[in-house]
Amino acid sequence: MAFVVNMPRLGLSEEENVLCEWYVAEGDRVETGDKLFSIETDKSSMDIHTEHGGIILKLMCEEFDVVPVMTAVCIVGESGEDISNIINQTKDTAFCVEPQLTLQSEQSEKNDHLYNLVQRPMEEKSIRRISPRARKLAEANGIDLSGVSPSGAEGRIVEEDILNTMKSAYQQSNSATKRQETKAFATIKQDGKTITTSKTRRIIAKNMVSSLRNTAQTTIHMRYNASNLQSYRAWLKSAPGFEKDITLNELISYTTVKTLLGFDYMNAHMPCAEEIILFEQIHLGFAVNTKKGLLVPTVKNAQNMDLPTFSFTLKALAEKARDGSILAEEMSDATFTISNMGTYGVTNFNPILNPPQVGILGVGTIDYAMKDTPEGMLFYPAGYISLTYDHRAIDGAPAAEFLRSLCNALESANMSALGG
Questions:
Q1: Domain check: are 143 and 164 in the same one?
Q2: Are 67 and 8 in contact (CB under 8 A)?
Q3: Where are the beta strands (DSSP E) in 194-286?
Q4: What's the pLDDT band for 119 if we cut at 50, 70, 90?
Q5: Do 82 and 140 share a domain, yes or no?
Q6: CA 321 to chain centre
Q7: pLDDT of 124 strictly over 90
Q8: What's the Cα-to-Cα distance from 145 to each of 5, 133, 135, rounded to whole Å?
């Protein structure tokens, strides 16, 4: 029996992914677990594997297509199987759209010159084939699709066609003086080294800018006495039942999970201004630096784990992220995220939210500091933590209460508090 492979949805706010590369062709036989294609999301790039064996009967899109989530990518079945009904049901749902007949009311001023040159009176016409990314770019800049020459397969408009139209309009609108200024600038840049950014880097950049633009991010910083935390870690190294070293990052992350149990408003999503979703389960995302860029695996249901299980799971996911074997479902549905830059000697920093999450914890290094106590000046190991929160969902006082509670838990680190 034939089945349809859809573009996976990895996050609540995800709308589309880029299909980067096919690993199979029509007519190939695949077994359960074989790689089908690679994708790039707003957060990472990864391989998608088949859940069923069979013959690749139909590829529904091409490499570098921008495909809406949960739409057909390919069909797998048995040789000679009739899939005409399936094709008819899924045909063009992802890639055929009507041209935009009206401009958005709030057209930015910087695109006015493009609108004046490119926009023409538009008449209702038959549907044109256009990729979702090209459609969004055209709508954002007021581009009339009737004036765009398609270069994609079967007369399909792709993003490059929209960019070429915009470039042509821009060149026409520039005066001789402006062109001269551009030429002078290009001459100055010749001494530098130009590096073309990877698709992963472009997606990360897009996601970061979108996060800052669409949320009210505020960051607060605190420090805590890490003496007990360091002592507890030293004890764990010699404790029975701990085959692998428990790192300070794992202790801090685990303590964060335990603290979140008492602060449901931090373990939440805000998908829109009208609602906030509070979660009972804690799916902890944690940032991992890889050769492909920043990836964020997720420890699912971390609230149910003891410390050894949590440590093992975190290590395993981090290793899979670095070697490129991590699965899509292992990087989705995080309810709160931690980013650790302490290993680089960073103290305080402002981590950027991963919407729709309302909080992210930045973990800094452990340094030494002094403070005045009734017994005199105390020289102690100080740990630094930073909390970025969405001020639309959380006010300053509740955010500070969570961070202070986390500091208290870290300062009183012991076997009962951490599940040892």
A1: yes
A2: no
A3: 217-225, 268-272, 275-278, 284-286
A4: very low
A5: no
A6: 14
A7: no
A8: 31, 13, 9
- The C-alpha angle with vertex 121 and arms to 120 and 124, in degrees rounded to 5, equals 120
User: In this structure, is residue 190 part of a structural domain?
Assistant: no
**Cβ atoms of 233 and 255 closer than 8 Å:** no
Same-domain pairing of 227 and 302: yes
| CATH number (domain holding residue 266) | 3.30.559.10
The reply to whether 87 and 122 lie within a common domain is no
Q: How far apart are CA 5 and CA 52, in angstroms?
A: 10
For residue 387, CA distances in Å to 123, 264, 269, 353 come to 52, 15, 16, 10
219 in a structural domain: yes
The answer to whether residues 25 and 118 belong to one domain is no
Check if the beta carbon of residue 337 is closer than 8 Å to that of residue 296: yes
Distance from first CA to last CA of the chain, Å, rounded? 50
pTM of the model: 0.59
- Give 316-338 pLDDT, tens digit per residue: 999 999 988 888 889 889 999 99
Sheet bearing 16-22, strands edge to edge: 45-49, 35-40, 16-22, 66-68
- Tokens read off for 147: 């004036």
Residue after which a domain boundary falls, among 149, 179, 209 = 179
In degrees to the nearest 10, what's the CA dihedral of 150, 155, 157, 160? -50
Asked whether residue 186 is domain-assigned, the answer is: no
Instruction: Evaluate whether residue 15 is within a structural domain.
Output: yes
Partners of 376 in the beta sheet? 373
Domain count, the chain: 3
Whether residues 217 and 114 fall in one domain: no
> Would you tell me how many other CB atoms lie within 10 Å of the CB of residue 2?
17
Residue 115 in this model has a pLDDT that exceeds 80:
no
Q: Which domain holds residue 30?
A: 3-94
Structure tokens at 378: 């105390």
Is pLDDT at 101 greater than 90 in this prediction? no
Question: pLDDT value at position 125?
Answer: 39
Give backbone dihedrals phi and psi of 302, rounded to 5 degrees, phi first.
-65, -25
